[in-house]
Amino acid sequence: MENEIEKLIQQGGEDTTYSIIIEKLKKGRVANETAAEVAKKQLDPLQHDVFDRIKRPDRKVKIDPDDPDFQPTENTVNVMEGSVSPTGYRLEPVARVAIALQKLIVKRAVAFAFGNPVELNAEPEDKSQEDVLKALKRVLYDVKSKSLNRRVGRNLFSCTEVAEVWYPVERKNKTYGFESKHKLRCAIFSPLLGHSLYPYFDEHGDLIAFSREFTVTVEGKEVRHFETYTSNLIYLWVQGLNGYELVDGYPKKIEIGKIPIVYAHQPQVEWADVQNLIDRLEKLLSNFADTNDYHAAPKIFVKGQITGFSKKGESGAIIEGDENSEASYLSWQNAPEAVKLEIETLLRLIYTITQTPDISFEAMKGIGQVSTQTMKLMFMDAHLKVADHQEVLDEYMQRRLNIIKAYIGKFNAKLGSAAEDLFVEPEIVPYMIVDEAAEIKIWQDANGGNPVMSQKASFQKAGLTNNPDEDYEQYKTEESSRSSFSVFEPTPA
């Protein structure tokens, strides 16, 4: 059976040079490459607009000719005296306040989506399927799937796309419950890691090829590489003087008969709808900081004629004036409250629109003791956001499990049929702070006031010991000793 890349080559006509093939594969790109670069800039507070000296220039301050920083710029006419006198200026840095709200929005989205492990729902029908499920869980444990899921979420929410590749490495082991010559590994591809991703879908929306473009530094020089995965082969090209050339040893065979790539894409970054609000907030805070700096030293307004000032060394600040003069401090009456209101409004809108709970200490300190049900209501918006993400993530997780099962079937041929027949459904459980005591009481009441778990299970659930099974057996021994006595033993006086 001819592979997908060969089909693409045939569709290109007689000219089947590698460059033509690569350009055809690049046309399948889903995400906007420019958008990924913009997203990376927005994630870095030091690259925000408030640090752009064109969009927010330093302030020009007029200075006197005898100032050491004087820089003559132009001549102006003194109308009163009819003379020409030079004027100058100095550049005074303005306040630049940037807030990493984009990172915060992504962190909260990742925490609620993957704060709990992804559950695996399966009903093995025989011993072989149970062995497959055991091996599947062990693979996920070895690649630290909890951290892997968070990395996937962080990259997807930050730059709209992410991919992972599963590949075997030669290493004899019995980790998966059977003897195997290989172990399974996983790597992430993402624009944040310097990869350009090019999925290629057919007219039915099925992934028939996946490519990534990346650079490798060789002898101090960056060399561009282009890697393509199909259901049968892996291709790797390197850009040379005469275009792309196929690397020695390629193409390589893919044993599982499917593309070992999991790919996900969402239309926009998590903060896309509030980017203008974040820009406004940073501008507002920067201007407010400038104003605070200006008013840090009290300003005195004098009405009438000043006759003298206090000399250096005198205690107090004395200003002398005639009988009709008045002096008062300049104060900012209404503006601070208006600025504060706008800042609070902007923050509230940013949190609301992005469905991001404000769980800062300042926001939560006045809440007091709340029930689990109240917590669920407080975090409902965040959970609805997770439900929206599941439209993409459920398919992503399902494809991952199918790839792992296919490799298990290749590592152990006896489990090939069972791996194909076993259905495992991933379930994303949104994170929630749970009042365990209240939860246990609810279930106890539903159970007629009786315990809802065994003593052994409670030992394991508590997690207070490294060996709960051994401690439980010790507990039974001690309990048996306390509940029995000898008639020959003296009783305490």
Describe, in plain words, how this protein is organized in 3D:
- The chain has 493 residues and is α+β, with helices and mostly antiparallel strands.
- Among the domains are: 4-41 and 99-272 and 392-427, no CATH class; 296-331, no CATH class; 453-483, no CATH class.
- The protein contains 15 helices and 18 strands.
- The strands form 6 sheets. Strands 7, 8, 9, 10, 11 and 12 form a 6-stranded antiparallel beta sheet that branches. It has a 3-stranded antiparallel beta sheet with strand order 1-3-2, with no helix packed on it. The chain has a 3-stranded antiparallel beta sheet with strand order 6-5-13, covered by helices on one side.
- α5 crosses α11 (380-411), α7 (275-294) runs antiparallel to α8 and α14 (455-462) packs across α15 (468-483).
Summarize this, please?
Helices cover 40% and strands 23% of the residues. With 493 residues, the protein is of the alpha+beta class.
Present the secondary structure layout.
Layout: H1 4-11, H2 18-26, H3 33-43, E1 59-63, E2 72-78, E3 83-92, H4 101-114, E4 119-122, H5 127-142, H6 145-159, E5 161-173, E6 180-189, E7 196-201, E8 207-218, E9 221-229, E10 233-240, E11 243-246, E12 252-253, E13 261-265, H7 275-294, E14 300-303, E15 306-309, E16 319-321, E17 326-329, H8 335-353, H9 361-364, H10 372-378, H11 380-411, H12 416-421, E18 424-427, H13 436-446, H14 455-462, H15 468-483
Antiparallel strand pairs: 1-3, 2-3, 4-18, 5-6, 5-13, 7-8, 8-9, 9-10, 10-11, 10-12, 14-17, 15-16
Helix pairs in contact: 4-6, 5-11, 7-8, 14-15
